Each structure stands twice: as structure tokens, then as C-alpha cells.
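User: C-alpha cells for both sequences below?

Assistant:
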Amino acid sequence: MATIRKLPTVNLMSRNLNPGTSYWVSTCSEIRQALEEYGCFIAVYDKFSEQLHNKAFDVIEPMFELPNEVKARNSSNLPYHGYYKPGKVMPLLESLGITHPPMLHQVQSFTHLLWPNGNDLFCETIHEYAMIVAELEQLVIRMVFESYGVEKYEKAQLESTSYLLRMAKYRVPLKDETNIGGLDHTDKNFITILHQNDVNGLEVQTKDGQWLTFESSPQSFVVMAGEPFLAWSNDRVHAPLHRVTINGDKPRYSIALFSTTKGTIQTPQEMVDEDHPLKFNPFDYEGLLRFYTEDVTRMAVCSIKDYCGI
């Protein structure tokens, strides 16, 4: 069972976040420390409104009521990028994905797949959602890079970033079913920013093996590091194991923005010293993703060292 211990919370209030101020510097340090200790934190982001929170879940809920053959049009050559239908391993979970959703034409293409006659409300809402949450992801990158003193790599990192938006539904389990909505796993992308409706379910494991919960609110997100971030940081940032459990009598909906890095990912030379010898060879995201999908047991542990460790 998860404990009542809480994940750290960082208030990212735009009116206070002026680069170079003491508040900015202390918040950068707060984020870095949370990622090193827990691998994640709750971000309260005031640029995201309660109105957009409500609209986003209002438009995705009917999407899951579409016929399966319609949702199956959301296909991809990359694992976990297209439609995931409930199966024996995770019978409660169903999800769809949009690649590069900050680009309006990508959301339009996805919308046309599911609604050939159009669905302007869905398209406009999800594009707005993706733009704001991608801005949050970029803010976190900037603050972490500055906290480590490697801000000269920030521009290249942001220019090489691409995004995947996954919208998920976890139905209520039947009496004879498990309540595990999402199996224990670590993320294989750089950063995940997760938002959920009023049904909690996310649990994150600490380094000492305790499971912590995330209490949702309209302006709160879980910002979580994936294994590529761990390797980039030369094993300073933690990539936490996490899962989803479903309790109660309402389905859980979530929206997750995954950031990935195009091209080669490598540890900055400034992150290597006598106390922190280089631990990872350069690698690329797609190669890492395919490595994990070759063996499903690799999804449940943080084993990037098996892929590119020195």
C-alpha cells in the first residue's frame, strides 16, 4: 500500500520566475534536488487554468467511446506511440498518442483520423494543452541545466526535443480483476509531464522502496525523469519506478506529455569529474526504446546501464 508521505511540490508561479533573481536560483536548486532524490516532483503551474483542465478531459472522454476500429487508425511504427487497446497484461488501460502535438497540423491530422468530418473543439483544446505543457517542460529543462551550470547546452537540447502526447483511460476493475491499471515501470523518454482528472491513481516508488501517491488538482502536474535524463546527468538524476492503481467507482483519465531527444544523447563533459566518472556511452532514444521492447522484463526496472553503460 502507498504511504501518506508526499512527493515534493514546487510552485512555478510565472510572476515570480525572473531569471537571475534569488527566487529563480533557489527554485532551480529545488527542482534539481527533487529530481535527484525522488526522480519527480509536483509542479503547480499557474499558466495552466482550471478551465483548460476541465476542457481537456471533457474532449478526451468521448474519444474513448469511439468504435475500436476507429481508434485503431491511430497507428505508429514506434512502440507505445499509437493506439493501445486493453489486453491480458493491462486490461484496464486504453490509450492513444499524438506525435509532436505542439505543431497544430499534427493535432489536426490525428483529429481527422478519428473524426473525418472534423472536431474543432478537440483539436483546439488539445493543441492549446500541448503548447502550455511543452512550455512547462522547457522551463524545467532550463532550470535544471542552469542549476548544474551547463546552460550552454540548453539551446541544443530544446532544439532537439520532440514530444508525444498520450491520452489514457483506466476503467473501473470488475470484482474478479486486479486493480493494477499500469504495471511497474520506469520511463524511457527524457521527461514525462503527467496530468490526471479527479481520480487519483499514480504511485511512485522512492529509493528506499516506499510507494508515494499523487493528489491531483487542476493546476498540478507530476514532472518525472526518464532513464535518458538519468544517463545525461551521469547518474545524478533518479528515474523512478511508478505504477497506476485504480480504486473507487469512477474511471481515471490522464494526459501525459513525453519529451524525447532526437539524435545522440550524451553526458556533458562538465558532469564528469574524479568523483563522478563517466558512466554512459552516447546513445539514441529510438535505439533505447527498441532495446526495452525486445524483452518486456526490461520495462519494469531501470536498466539503462545494460544498454549503454560503461
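Moving on to the next sequence.
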Amino acid sequence: MKEKLTEHAVRLFDEKGFTVTSIQDIVESIGVTKGTFYYYFSSKEELLMDIHMRYIDGLLAKQNRVLDDEGKSYSEKLLDIVHLSIVDIKEQGASAKVFFREMRHLSKKSLDQIEPKRDMYRFNIEKLLKEGRKNGEFREGFDASIVAFGILGMMNWSYQWYKPNGAKSDTEIAETFVDMVLTGIESK
């Protein structure tokens, strides 16, 4: 039942937004009482927190599998991380939108638990960039922290415009993003 409540809440948060969606809306969507809701969650914000934790924990686990793959170059790992983020937006759909869009409705206490995990995702990208630079695969002289933020910006904003059935596949988009990061767009 907890999964069903979460699934319906994600759909409603995506459609109507967190603030407009009431607990009553959630329970009515599956035909249960508020008592059922409160058995699993103490508040609507706790439910939102649960959605955020599930999303970021899943994303971190996938990212760590990529980073731990010793058979791939740093460029290949970067491509895989960008690709997994786009694929995750495709696969998670509404959960991804809720994760990126509704974070502002979490309390400081909730943010204190989520932000370190979100930061870890960024730090892992930054570490990958630094290791690739140290290894000689990436050039010297770039600010790995700023580049990591740039990569995250590209990936995270794609939930707004990416269409899984659009003209470009998730692989083509990831390859374009990584090509832009690695080679730029300047004619030499």
C-alpha cells in the first residue's frame, strides 16, 4: 500500500504540484482513508522526502556502478553517467520531475538529509574529471568543480524538455552533451 500511495502521489504532484495536491486527493485517487495514509507517512512532506530519497539513492547506486567499472575509460564513464541521468528521467518520468521541481517544498531538516546525497552525485562527477585529468585523458587547466556543475546543469534541466519519443534518442543526447564537454564547439 505504501508503494501505491507513493505512486499516486508522484502522479498527482507531477500533474497538480505539491502544494495544490492534498492528502485527501492522494487517498481518494486509490480509494483509501486518511488513516491509511497516516499509517505510512506522518505528513505530505514526509512522503515528498521519501520520494526524494528513493530517487537520489537509486541514482547514486547507478552512478557508483558506472564509476566502479574498471574496464572503462574516464570519457566512457562520463558518457555513461550523462546517459544514465537522461535514461533515468525517461524511466522515472514523473518521479524525476517531482525530484527536480518540488525540492523547494522540503523543510530544512529534510534538506539536511537530501542535500549531502545530491552533493555526492556532483562530487563523484568532479572526482571523475580530476582523475581523468591526472591520468592524462582530460586536459589540464579547467576547473573541475565548475565543469561538474555545468554537466549537472545540462543533465538536470533535461527533465523539462527531453521527449523519450522525440527526434533524438537518449544516447544521441548524451553523446552530444559529452562531446560538447570534451571537445567544445569552437572550430580549430
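User: Anything stand out in the second?

Assistant: DSSP finds nine helices and no strands in the chain.
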